[in-house]
Amino acid sequence: MKRKSFRFYLMALFLLTAMILAACSNNNDSASNEDVGETEGDSSDGERMSLRVFAPTFTTDPPTKDSPVWQALEDYTNKDLNIEWAPNSNLDDRFNITLSSGDLPHVMMIPGRTPSFISAVEDGAFWELGPYLDDYPNLSQANEIILNNSSINGEVYGIYRSRDLGRNGVIIRKDWLENLGLEEPTTIDEFYDMLKAFKEDDPNGSGADDTYGIVVSKYEGPWDVMQTWFGVPNGWGEDENGELYPSFLDDNYLDALNFFKKLYDEGLVNEDFAVMDTAQWSDPVIAGEAGVQVNVLDEGHRIQDKIIEADPDNEEPITVIKAVEGPYGLLNLPTTGYNGMLAISKTSVKDEDELKEVLDFLDKLNDEEAQILAENGIEGEHYDVEDGELVNFTDDNPGLLSELDGLNQLLMYIPEAKSLSPAGDPLRELENQLMVENEEIVVPNPAEAYISDVYARRGQQLDTIIEDARIQYIVGQIDESGLEEAVELWRSSGGEEYLEEINQLHQEAQE
After folding, report:
1. Residue 46: its pLDDT value, please?
2. pTM of the full predicted structure?
3. Contact 468, 206 (CB under 8 A)
4. What is the distance between the alpha carbons of residues 191 and 200, in angstroms, rounded to a whole number?
5. What was the pLDDT predicted at 423?
6. Are 153 and 451 in contact (CB under 8 A)?
7. What is the C-alpha to C-alpha distance for residues 259 and 326, in angstroms, rounded to an integer?
8. Which CATH number applies to 167-333+423-448: 3.40.718.10, 3.90.180.10, 3.30.470.20, 3.40.190.10?
9. Fewest 10 Å CB contacts: which of 171, 256, 458, 462?
10. 286-289, long-range: CB within 8 Å, 24+ apart, which pairs?
């Protein structure tokens, strides 16, 4: 029995040795094939880094590894992808659950600078990426304003997913301008004259006193945009000594409020602006009651589509402009310029060599070829270009759409969007053109990057004090002394402490 077991052992050892030698021979053959020019990124080389990616999905049927688009992205970036899809409807919850698990994917789409993300950064869960960006052809071209807006106290812990920084503008009833023989306004005074004409000169030709100039809702954004025209800072200003101060303490703030009050007193803005539901904000422009809305530029074509739907003969009822010139030139309020970030965890990415591989992956996703794959799919299968126009085969084919729907959530569009878009109508093209031009005149917020403990605790209360005072001043419920009282209430409610903290953070960032 013992002799048989020993003989069996020798046979097994012989077979194992033969298998190892065969494997070594195969590896040598593979190496030889690679030496003579095997394509980089071929999965047969066994050298691809395997990447786990946490990303949102807006569909119940997101792409899987069987998707040819997914596989093409793997080939292009030379990575094996494992995407952990999280429904956007409960993205925050899924994000927080993943954070608390401690088992973080290599790359995580961060919804924003949430308290849980900031806490994880402070605990050392994510890589600081700022020092590495200049080493990559696309990431090195990141917009400095957006990079700062998405940073935490000036340090970059995620690559922003770019959105239009210069999205704000003015939407105007073009047909009303033409009916009254008016040109588009270029200055604040001309803007006022237009609003006055839209109220008093029967721009819709009804013969009745049924129109007014500008519609504003309870959303505070339009006032923020328009006060920028007067030179009021975006959130925070910086004085000659490098000290930051809140925008409502700026010398130009009262001039802006007096202009808004004038609009209200003369009936050029809707009386119910402080309570109007934002869902109904565009309705008066569509219905021919109001002639102007200060909003995101791309709301212009949505309003126009609804006007034309009701009146097909009115072919071009809307136009858009960037801003109007004030005492300090042409200025505009930017958006934050991003929607979420792609952060790299230290849980899965252990050292700098791995970090650089992941950054290379993110950089490649900004290439034109990768953007087209993730956004449009594979030419000839998911789309084609005929006579210079994009033709989407996925529009009426849900199965085909599911092969790529959501992969664009991985895209950052840095330095710009390079995927294919259908030809737009003249208004859409104008909107896109102005968004680009706006980037030259937007006013950055010097304190956007700073994470304030005071604001985390008292920010909503502090904002409400100032916002309520602005509305009350516009409608005549308080005067200048009432404004001053509101500022004092702001200071005593934590504002003074907030001001000191922001300046301390600002000083540390400068150092």
Report:
1. 58
2. 0.86
3. no
4. 14
5. 83
6. yes
7. 12
8. 3.40.190.10
9. 458
10. 286/310, 288/173, 288/204, 288/211, 289/210, 289/211, 289/212, 289/215
